[in-house]
Amino acid sequence: MIHNKTIYTLLCFMALVNRFCLAGVLQNPGNVSCIFHYQLPQSPNTLICNWTPSKETNLDADYTCIRKPDAGVQDERKLTNYSCIFHDVPLLSSYCICLKAANSFGTSKCTHFHSAEILKPDPPQLNELEPVPGMKQMLRVSWTGPQKLPRSTKYVADRQYEIRYTATTKNHSSTMFVPGNQTSINLTNLVHCTNYTVAVRCNLKESKFWSEWSNVKTGTTEEPDPLKVDLWRVIELHPSSGNRTVHLLWKENEEFQCLGKMNNYEIRYSTENNTYFEHTKGNTFTLHLTEEAYVISVAAFNVIGESPVATVKIPSVSEEHMDHQRIVTLNASALNEQIILEWEPSDLDINGYVIEWYNDLEPNSYKRSWQKITNVTKWTFPKGAFIPFKRYKISVYPLLNGEIKVPSSTRTYFREGIPLEGPSVEPAENIDKNRATIKWKEIPEAKRNGIIISYTVFYKSEDGKELGETVNANVLHYQLKSLQANTKYEVHVMASTVAGGKNGSVVVFVTTKLGAVDIILISILLGLFMLCLLIVGILGAVKRHKLKRILWPPIPHPSITATTTQKLPVWKNSPMDETHNISLEAYPYSEKCDKLQLPNHENFITQKIVPDNVCGREYEVIIGLPTISSVEHDSKSPDLRALNESSNDYENIEDQSHLNKVFNPYFKNSVSKREFLMCENSAENTHGPKLQSVPLTFCLPNSTASPYVPLDKFAQFREHTELQDT
């Protein structure tokens, strides 16, 4: 372990010493460069040398630059900022340059130079740049050579010049070389009516240094004859009338245009039979044409002459309808700040295409750009042709024998962003206990900033977490499900592009307590209940007497099988002014009878019942009450109370007039106090002799009739009752 540490320490020490030694050694002076500047005779020549070290040194040392001529005295200069200057250097001389450090490490090797090889002349002087009369694409350039050079023939012959000229409409520059014995030249094959900038520089053939560029001058080529315009058209069809509006667009066909020089344009449009002429100074024109076929041409005019005509054919309406699609697929994709367009044609005879593009939301829909291309099915739009976040419509028109055919179109964004605003949500509809329908409006095209790929519906209850449902971009409504009844919800919709999403307005709604199904069921049940009530009411109205006997049967009085009615005269002391019908019923009487006590019959009429032995049997005669359903109600009737009072009066009179007569105590009981006896063998009595009607005179006051009722009277009484029932 100790041995390893010793070796490591020794290696570090040796590396440090080596670094110190290497830093002290002077670097290779091959990095020294010198430039010789020739001056006028009254000014000294100057030699400037520069040293560029390959790496920094860690030692503080003073460097000295030494010039050693082939003949003469050695000259030394202190190196400042890796540079040194020597004055009064002869023009034609050779010397070497070396560096020396002010320490014990010595002097570097020497680098040899010759003044002619490192001579850098001063720049020439550019004098004129002007067009050549009669030459449309030419400029003449003249200049003066460098002033600070020897006037000897040798130095003049060894000169050469470089001319640099650049069109202001393009960034590329062109150069040409001129021998040193020339001071002017004509620049040819230039573009008509275009501005150019020109500069000149000079050097000697033996020298490796060029002078600086001269001053810059700008000149313009002469105006040429007008060039053929690039013509395009936009057709607007009016189906109702069959007529068409054609918008003509044109631009200069050359890359370098002479703008603003055209005086006017002539538009010629003709059918098979007629030709028409129009003139304009702009670069657009609108024609109103019929459904016939037209040939339209445009020519440009300036002070020089007329341009060749540009022609476009407008097919007839019938030809347009018969035409078919010749492009199968069309795709546009954005890549590296450009849009690449690819398509696939179906017709091999297509010899060219026209690419048209424009802002789909541009108010002026006829402001368009286009480019004609040939023999390609993939094209890259030039940079700067599109604006980010704007939707463009791109169309490809195939050219078949020079005629424009049906295009194929697509819409795309050069660059997409987040929408400027979210969807506008409408009030919730079809609100139910557990459901609600949410509808929203599309974002205006100008505020989408991209293609909407989806919508997300977010909803949240008062105390719950937010939930979301995503739908496609072509869906503008969504039904929320599984909601809580009688709960407040907040809803908003987010529209999303590839760049992100934007939330829209918020809508609040409250779900109902009952759902539509619940309301329907309740309505059905209520309807059925009301229908039942209606049916019962109708049946009650139609069958009220029968229903009354079924639902509320009359409480039977102790009565006989045959009933009859007789009118009873009103007693003197009776307050009643009308007579009453009294029913008499006779039942066979037996000793073995069950007792039936009627409750609360104190107001019943007091009656005299006389037993008699008819055919060996005993009968009882009962004066019946008016036939109604309730005995208690009958006892409270005012007519019966009056009749009862009359009966009581009769009994008093009877008692006073017949004090000496003795009656059976059973017949003295009033109807309200009498215990009615039901015969056990009543079934046997029903087979006895027929009953006969009996006069009711024994019930009247002062009646002298016998209190016994013959059997034939009951029979008459029964027949009379049956006749009345029928």
How would you summarize this macromolecular structure in one to three sentences?
The chain is of the alpha+beta class and 726 residues long. 16% of the residues lie in helices and 37% in strands.
The total beta strand count reads 42
The poorly predicted ranges are: 19-26, 561-640, 649-708
What global shape is seen? Answer: elongated
Helical stretch count? 10
Any idea what the radius of gyration is? 67 Å
Largest sheet: 5 strands, antiparallel
Give the DSSP E fraction (strand runs of 2 or more residues): 35-45%
**Strand pairing plus helix content: what structural class?**
alpha+beta
N-to-C span: 146 Å
Question: Care to describe what's here?
Answer:
The chain is α+β, with helices and mostly antiparallel strands and 726 residues long. It has six domains: 28-114, Immunoglobulin-like, CATH 2.60.40.10; 125-220, Sandwich (Immunoglobulin-like), CATH 2.60.40; 229-316, Immunoglobulin-like; 324-413, Immunoglobulin-like (Sandwich), CATH 2.60.40; 429-510, Sandwich (Immunoglobulin-like), CATH 2.60.40; 554-725, no CATH class. The chain is built from ten helices and 42 strands. Strand 40 and strand 41 (617-624) form a beta hairpin.
